[in-house]
């Protein structure tokens, strides 16, 4: 059974003890959001994938992924893309909100990676999410902290060059069973994430991707590319010249 399914079973079991057996009851909105979000962001690899895709969709040519203790304490993706407009702050992390399509027919000509309006909303439900961004026409950045429902908790100006930084702290801590499994298999989850990141490093020509992992004793370079114009050069950066 998937950990997300286990979470659901435990949640429903706890609720069943406090309600009359045999009666159909609505699930509260907070639980619905957590359960559904757990089906969108399945693991550390999915979280990194969604954030890297957002950076590439924003036209970033430099993307830095920072992890602390293999991602269990902190995951941060920093880019030099177009940034986020102030008018979009409020809806940025809400469910089913996106700037990449307007109706179902747009799916036939989609040219971006992320378009479902699910990623940031789901990450809000599963972690503590903060976004620091500066739109390409702005002279000052903004730091926005979101709550678990994707609504703005705080917003303040801050210095930043053009681009966006997404910071996640304590991923999966709102789902105790999955969080426990994540910590128990931390190195395995990290290696899955690295393999997914390799794929984006290889296909992303014209963009430099670099990833670091900070442990208690040292900062390790995981992978880096050099803003190459060809996939072949990216493969050399990722796997070495022999490969």
From TrEMBL:
It comes from the Eukaryota. Pfam families: HATPase_c_3. PROSITE patterns: DNA_MISMATCH_REPAIR_1. InterPro entries: DNA_mismatch_repair_CS, HATPase_C_sf, MutL/Mlh/PMS, MutL/Mlh/Pms-like. NCBIfam families: mutl (TIGR00585). Belongs to the DNA mismatch repair MutL/HexB family. This is Mismatch repair endonuclease PMS2-like. It comes from Saccoglossus kowalevskii (Acorn worm). The gene is LOC102808945.
């Amino acid at each position: 059974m998937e950990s997300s399914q286990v979470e659901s079973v435990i949640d429903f079991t706890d609720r069943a003890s406090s309600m009359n057996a045999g009666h159909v009851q609505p699930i509260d909105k907070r639980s619905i959001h957590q359960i559904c979000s757990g089906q969108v962001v399945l693991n550390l690899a999915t979280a990194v994938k969604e954030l890297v895709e957002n950076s590439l969709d924003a036209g970033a040519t430099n993307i830095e992924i920072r992890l602390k203790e293999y991602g269990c304490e902190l995951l941060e993706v920093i880019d030099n893309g177009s940034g986020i407009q102030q008018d979009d702050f409020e809806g940025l992390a809400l469910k089913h909100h996106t700037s990449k399509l307007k109706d179902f027919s747009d799916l036939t000509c989609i040219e971006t990676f992320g378009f479902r309006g699910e990623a940031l909303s789901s990450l809000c439900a599963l972690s503590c999410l903060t976004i620091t961004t500066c739109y390409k026409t702005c002279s000052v950045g903004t730091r926005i902290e979101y709550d678990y429902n994707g609504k703005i908790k705080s917003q303040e100006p801050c210095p930043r060059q053009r681009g966006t930084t997404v910071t996640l702290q304590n991923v999966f801590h709102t789902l105790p069973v999955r969080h426990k499994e994540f910590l128990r298999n931390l190195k395995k989850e990290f290696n899955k994430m690295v393999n997914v990141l390799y794929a984006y490093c290889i296909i992303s020509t014209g963009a430099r991707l670099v990833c670091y992992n900070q442990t208690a004793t040292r900062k390790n370079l995981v992978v880096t590319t050099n803003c190459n114009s060809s996939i072949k050069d990216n493969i050399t950066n990722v796997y070495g010249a022999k490969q």
